[in-house]
Amino acid sequence: MRQTWPIMVEKKGALVIVELALLLLLLPLLSGAPVIGRVKEIAARNNVTCILVFGDSSVDSGNNNFIVTTIKSNFLPYGKDFYNGRPTGRFSNGRLATDFIADAIGYTKTIPAFLDPNKKLKDLPHGASFASAASGYDDFTANISSVLSLPRQLKYLMHYKVKLRKLVGQKRAEDIIRTAVFVMSMGTNDFLQDYYLDPTRPKQFTVEEYQNYLVSCMANAIQKMHRLGGTRLVVVGVPPLGCMPLVKTITDATTCAENYNKLAFSLNSKIQEKLETISATSRMKTAFVDAYGIIQNAINNPALYGLSETSKGCCGTGTTEFGDSCRGLETCTDPEKYVFWDAVHPTEKMYEILAEEAIKTLAQKLLV
Fold first, then answer.
1. What residue stretch is flagged as signal peptide (predicted)?
2. Is 342 an active-site residue?
3. Are 35 and 20 in contact (CB under 8 A)?
């Protein structure tokens, strides 16, 4: 059921939030600089100036470029629709959802990778991505591909705080962290690259036990974020794994592989339950973005979003290629019509759709 929005509320500052929420609901129907300007103005009034990102390839803006791993996308055709048509390490043809969220808030058009030595210090107060493609809630998932585990990403957050204090002073740095929006997006690799490919975890956990283990890892990370000063967190749910072109190819499915989708749906339910508990028992405000529902709706109703190709990716055949196997391949002529860029990752267009929904969630759950 669609969320209904109250017209009047008594809580101090809530009228501004309702104003923002209503405006964001109208964004798909409106266009032009005045609307975006209004969103930026209201976000500024709510002290949202910084986005700090943790996760996997869905939010990695290039950290894997600077570590020793084979999991990279710093080559064409990745990034062909990014600014100046250059690959950055983002696993898409252009920007990620977190980039669009940052742009809507108004302080930067992209979220830089924290490990990028070329990042500009003046951009630090507005956010950074610590995410690493092929990572997961489970440390073992990251170790398989030699990428940054979630605890390692949190260590880099501490390094970020040190740099921020040197740049703006301790009090301002603490304020920036306190009012920042933390974003966490992962979970896909824990199954597709870990549980279903490596024999280690299946020997230790049933599927449900492993889901519970992942949620406990997530909760531990959130506690650490809170201790480091975080007060606002958005968790992006696991997408419909069975609808990924690669999974459909491997399982020889003509439609979405239902068993994989049920797995993702079940994990998302457990994540939501844990977030509700955390919100009720701590001062950490949490929100959940239903990537599963948003992507599935786009696949089932593509015309609503101006899409037409939902079954394969834009790179190569669109059925198996991703990462290095996508290197240098021909792509479709119009990625704006595709849900998937490669056989695993969404297009910039799909990330923009996800971002619009995430911003609505921010307005409803966190900016109060």
1. 1-32
2. yes
3. no
Measured at the CA of 187, the angle between CA 147 and CA 299, to 5 degrees, comes to: 120
Handedness of CA 272, 276, 278, 284 (dihedral sign): positive
DSSP secondary structure of 251-269: TT-SS--HHHHHHHHHHHH
What pLDDT digit, counting tens, does each position of 298-357 carry? 999 999 999 999 999 999 999 999 999 999 999 999 999 999 999 999 999 999 999 988
Cα–Cα dist 299/310, whole Å: 5
Q: Which of 31, 56, 57, 185 is catalytic?
A: 57
Integer Cα distance of 338 and 114 in angstroms:
30
Which backbone phi and psi does 346 adopt, to 5 degrees? -70, 160
Catalytic residue among 56, 103, 138, 342: 342
From the list 295, 218, 292, 239, the residue with the least C-alpha distance to 54 is: 218
Is residue 159 among the annotated active site residues?
no
Nearest-angstrom CA–CA distance, 222 and 278: 9
pTM metric for this prediction: 0.90
Residue 290 known to be catalytic: no
- Please identify which of the residues 56, 132, 138, 345 carries the catalytic annotation: 345
Which candidate, 337, 334, 339, 332, places its Cα nearest to that of 306?
337
